[in-house]
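ping. complex inputs:
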Amino acid sequence: MRRLTWFNATSLTLGFAFLYLPMIILIVYSFNESKLVTVWAGFSTKWYGTLIQNEAFLDAAWVTIQVAVVSSTIATVLGTMAALVLVRAGRFYGRTLFSGMIYAPLVMPEVITGLSLLLLFIGIGLDRGIFTIILAHTTFSMCFVSVVVSSRLVTFDRSLEEAALDLGCSHFDAFRLVTLPIIAPAVISGWLLAFTLSLDDLVIASFTAGPSATTLPIKIWSSIRLGVSPEINALSTIMIAIVAVGVITASLITKRASLRQQADERAAVHA
Amino acid sequence: MSQTVFEPWNDPDAKPLIQFKNVTKRFGEFTAIDNQSFDIYEKEFFALLGPSGCGKTTMMRMLAGFEKPTEGTILLGGQDIAPFPPNKRAVNMMFQSYALFPHLSVWDNIAFGLKRDGKSKDEIAARVEEMLKLTRLEQFARRKPHQISGGQRQRVALARSLAKAPKLLLLDEPLGALDAKLRQATQFELMDIQEKTGTTFVIVTHDQEEAMTVASRVAVMDTGKIIQADTPQVIYEAPASRYVADFIGDVNLIDGMAEAREGGAEAASTAESETPAQFEAEIPAAETAPRAPQPNERGKWLHDKLFKYILGPREDAPKQLPPPTPEESKAAASAVQPYAIAPGGITIHWAEGQPPLIASNGDPALAGKRVTLAVRPEKLGISKDRPESANALRGKVIDIAYLGNLSTYHVELANGTMVKAQLANTRRVAQRDITWEDKVWISFRDTAGVVLGE
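pong. complex structure:
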């Protein structure tokens, strides 16, 4: 292994500082004694204490989690179905158009998606609240799921399904017993992606949220306008921690699974 | 086991298990199967053989139910199978990629089809154990497909497709992913299992050796048509067309004009005009050629100065194998010995100024037509002196391929036709030192070839 030259070390430090310095400052100041965000007055965890007693934040957090779980689940079901059709179905008229349309929301500006949803909800007379946020989040995260799942389905060996049919499965059984278990990792990561997207969405949520339901990002955004409080820092630190734990766990699980598979395959060759 | 020959296709009373009746399959403009009718009988091992794109896989997928014939009907045990989807047919398939379910253990893979039938737990367990035993996989039952080797995976796939005791098992290039040695062993295993279970097997392959080894009948296909369906022996020894002759094994094709033949008498007499004595003298002559390795000067010096005291004095005479016994010489010679040429058949005029070829097994009805004589390389003799044989052609050795057990001589005949002669490298015969550019005689019997019409 080559040692780092001073140039490489500097590049590395600068790069990571650029990425992580803002977050580190946020985390450090969440443990600040002082109410003033910019003045360090000693270590304290009291803002975490007050956060737990803040009803408004807790309500918003609960709404956010409900929205994320429900919308990502619906998005996963719909996205997987769309991926199956687009990968599996042979050529049909307008197929290219349909697959293009599935991916279009990926690049659509969020403001436009949000605005159009808002107009739709007003048009059909739907009262804005938790239900409309769920609908909106399902709409935009579904295409992410479909991208993830279809990239897995492209490499899926069709003869596995044919074998299941050959052995007496109906089409639905073949999907339930063979296809789904095999593409499960892609479906789960699609769900996780949809969940994260829903968790931190601000723009679309603020278009579609009503007075009855506010999500955490909206709550944070609106309280910032009244001035940054150390409570927000504490809340953000908790969110960073949750995301970090999730990401690290997921990557460890995938890594271990692939290592074990490799070892098994090596063993099989020599068996 | 009964000693009667298994040939249901020659028995007019035998009821076929599968009947293709004027089956055509089109994919858009492309015709994959062109109006084919044929029968497959119970307990047969039927091979569909052909190059890629000849329609053999389509044929199999129609039997499995993954494709429907565009026209015509397929009967299984007398019943039209078109309305039955794959999961309702007493037909199972072993896929080329094996298609093992990666998330299930070997045991669960084999049990998969049985569970779908709603059998009781004990029944399933008993059947799976039976299958594991049949395919010698007992100790791998708990492993996942990626934890076993390629050959074992192949056996799991076979066990899984046999577990439901189908009337018909389809095998799609079942041994394609195995290496040569394992493939040969597995071919015999397949035949063994087919015999034990009494299931009808239909195998799709592009490997003619594999088809010939395992199958009771081979159907040679080309562009959507079965060209010939018969036993491996007939396919090899009596191909019905140029295509079959050329596709199966190596063959020499000599084109010419056929002429009816009255009798074999005069041809036999010309053959006898050569003295047999001359021929017999040839083999001992070849024996005298030096061939054992000789030590060089330094080797001799080393031996005389040093090894003599340990190993004894050096023999100058090279060590040789004992000369052939008279029986051995006779056996070697009889390979190209003359014998009576049967009357009838045809002669084939194949080149200007060359004696016509005698094919006493040719159909006289072909007289006056252009024909092709197909002769397998191993049926050609090659010698430096004119042999006594129904057909002897002059030629020049262009190339020699030494394959260890065999040598193939590429010989150019008078009119430029290239023929291949294959000789087994048995101990004695290998010593006839034919080499590049040698003038040789190519000889074969009057019944060695097959006369094919246009």
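Chain A has eleven helices and no strands.
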